[in-house]
Amino acid sequence: MMNDADLELSDVHDQLPAVEEYKASVGYKKKSSNVSRPDPSGLDSLSLVSNTVPDEDEEEHEIGSKYGSAPSKGYAWKYLLCTVGTLVIIVTMAVIIAKKTGNDEGVTTGTRNSEKFQDTVDFLSRSGVSEASLFDDEDSAQYHAAQWLAHKDVAKLEVPGRFNSARANTFIERYALATVYYALGGPKWTHQLNFLSEEHVCTWYEDFNVVNDEFNLFSGDFITLGIHGCKHVNEDLVPYSLFLPNNNLVGSLPDEVHVFDHMEVVSLHFNTGITGQIPEGLSKMAKLRHLAMQWCDLTGTIPSWIGNAKDLQYLGLGNNQLTGTVPASISQLTELQVLGLDDNDLEAFHTLSNLKSLYLEDNRIGGTISAALMTSWPVLQELDLSGNDLGGELPDNFFDHKNALQVVDLHRNNFEGTFPAVSAYNYDLEFLALQDNKFTGSISEDISKLKALRHLDLNMNDFRSDLPGSLVQMTQLEYLFLGGNSFTEGEIPGFLFELTNLRELSLKASKVQGTLPGFIGYLTNLEFLDLHFNSISGIVPSEIGLLTNLEHLLLKNNDLVGTLPKQMEKLSSLRVVLLEQNDFGGDASTICDNAELVHFAADCRSGIQCSCCDVCCDEENQTCNAGEWDGGLDPIWEYGYRRSRYSYDMGPHVVVIP
């Protein structure tokens, strides 16, 4: 797993999504934690409290030398009262002015011309941290950060006298992080994470318990948001990880991040309010190894300087609005192992030999997959090119190349030709999605050599002939979608019911005839069964009551008759039931007593009596509930290619079942 705390690389399935990344995409609540971190308080050279106040002897000497001998006692009292009164008037007027001129962040424009503010601006501009003109704009993040540092920061840092010093580095880092805070809408962040506190920036973080974990994988664990890690560099204690995912960041990342030349991790993903282009300031982070800005709202192109990030191992820019071609310089990232550019509007790509995971789905990438291209990825484990404009035939070595491919997703393209041959046993491939292409011919009997395959989706192609009998050997299958093809007409093959690990099975629109056999009851792990748009006749067998895990039952548009078996009352997990366009009679009380139902459609206008149906059809009305009820999985790498929900198209609207 690529963990943002230590960036150790191991199993790619743990790596994507990384545990910290996935946990950041779910809910969390604050937690007290004893996480071991460097202690900034022990570094005298980085003390944040100004120590320039003179001691008592020095102060007395200065006063004595300035004013001469002490005045008489009576005069002293008058002098003291006059001084106090004057101070009260001055403070009162200052408060009134501050209230009139103050801004939302509590920084007053009345301090714009203060000596310390001007010294701060002068230091930051002369040191090359920010352009001087940025401080002229009172709405800029740079202006607010400089005002905060000069007047509101409780640490009260003095403006450094020289540039290359530990104190100067601390001053600059504090300003740069304040600029990030104001530029990304810090006051409205979901969690403030101790930002702008008087402590060292290495304490600007909070720990949280993970809650609302969709897959129940990390509940009870904790995650650290903010400055996720610091390390010692010479006499400095510097941040190396900025981890702010899913925290309501809004705005553009400022170029001031360039000061963090030891930063290794920048993770801002799942903040859809982050806009603008990829900031050039990132190009100055020479040690950057992990950049995660997927699920933001970035625009523009991927800059050519990305090729200069020689240490980059993880680059996540998916689900943005990036356009153009992927720059050729990306091929210089020889250390890159994980590349996610999915869900953009990109047109071309350059290969990388050390990639372990490549996610380019839902772009506009064209061309073919050649034998040479497959061999150029010797260590690739996860490949997702779905939803592009790729075509042609798959090469003969598609399943035989000597890498460790575990996930292949090529659905929604224009691939054609026959199913690639499997000439040797493959013990690595677990996920194969080829649906929504133009494949023809028969499915090879050699498919059973894919010994580790758990997910097989060949839906919506033009495969012909019979289903290969060798499928019976693929007992590890959990997901099998074969619908929408042109298989030979016939009954449901008996060998399918020996695949007892199946959780999802679809043979919709596959010219299936005959009856629904009783041995369907052997598939006790089924959660999803889709047999609609076929010619299945007869009654629903009582053995269906053995499928106690069944949540989705799609039998619409067949020739089924009779009443629903009483044993269906045992199907307490049912959520979606489609029975319309059949010839059922009786009533549906055995299903209506199910409290989990979300959607139930049947011919309750002309046949079966149904008190709980939300869609009542007439068996003569072929357009009733005629949407494309496709429950297939459109996998997402951020969820580890596991199903997060079911989504059904009902014509004018979509039904989503978590």
What can you tell me about this protein's structure?
It contains nine helices and 36 strands. It has a 20-stranded mixed sheet. A six-stranded parallel sheet has the order 15-17-19-21-23-25, with no helix packed on it. The radius of gyration is 33 Å and the shape is elongated. It starts with 11 loop residues before the first helix and ends with a strand.
State the helical fraction: 10-25%
Radius of gyration: 33 Å
Please report the number of helical segments: 9
Report how far apart the termini are.
27 Å
Which keywords apply here?
alpha/beta, 20% strand, single chain, 20-stranded mixed sheet, elongated, six-stranded parallel sheet, 658 residues, 9 helices, disordered N terminus
Quick gist of this model?
The protein is α/β, with parallel strands linked by helices.
Walk me through the topology:
Elements: H1 12-15, H2 19-24, E1 27-31, H3 56-67, H4 73-101, H5 115-126, H6 141-152, H7 166-183, E2 205-211, E3 222-233, E4 236-243, E5 250-251, E6 265-267, E7 273-274, E8 290-292, E9 299-300, E10 314-316, E11 321-324, E12 338-340, E13 345-346, E14 357-359, E15 366-367, H8 371-375, E16 382-384, E17 389-393, E18 407-409, E19 414-417, E20 431-433, E21 438-441, E22 455-457, E23 462-465, E24 479-481, E25 486-487, E26 504-506, E27 528-530, E28 537-538, E29 552-554, E30 559-562, E31 576-578, E32 583-584, H9 589-592, E33 599-602, E34 615-616, E35 646-649, E36 654-657
